[in-house]
Write a structure and sequence with these properties.
4 helices, 3-stranded antiparallel β-sheet, alpha+beta, 143 residues, 3 domains
Length: 143
């Protein structure tokens, strides 16, 4: 498991299990020789270095009243409608994009787009000569 994702997954498991346990839980991230990472509940063993330690208190279950449940249902319905609307918009834009791509090739626009992407990507290392060469390519394509 990757280090960035591992501790999140372990925290999720321990937080989910916290209400089931009677007392507080502890989670430690231990670093071994060669940088090996492991997670233990409680303190790290003597041969491992403690990199991170967290005490997890039990989480009380949340009880929602009828009004809060109704608001959550409304929010979920809105999210579903919004996802459907955005999905429909993206599908229609993709369809328009495909229909345009089968038409004539806009060499001038493609050259400008390539120049702009290159400038954005290489803006820190762009030389004057490279910028002039990109402009020359656009000029040739737009004749």
């Amino acid at each position: 498991m990757r280090t960035g994702q591992g501790w999140r997954a372990m925290m999720g498991v321990l937080v989910a299990m916290a209400p089931l346990s009677s007392g507080a839980a502890e989670l430690s991230r231990c670093i071994g020789h060669g940088g090996a990472v492991s997670y233990v509940s409680g303190a790290c063993p003597a041969n491992l270095r403690t990199d991170w330690h967290q005490d997890l208190a039990p989480v009380a279950p949340v009880v929602l009243d009828a009004d809060a449940r109704a608001r959550m249902a409304d929010a979920r319905a809105w999210q579903a409608r919004n996802r459907a609307e955005v999905s429909s918009l993206v599908r229609s834009q993709n369809a328009r994009s495909r229909s345009r791509s089968t038409g004539t090739i806009d060499r001038c626009g493609a050259a400008r787009s390539k120049r702009d992407r290159t400038r954005d990507r290489d803006f820190r290392t762009m030389t004057y000569d490279r910028a002039v060469a990109l402009d020359d390519q656009v000029r040739e394509a737009c004749r």
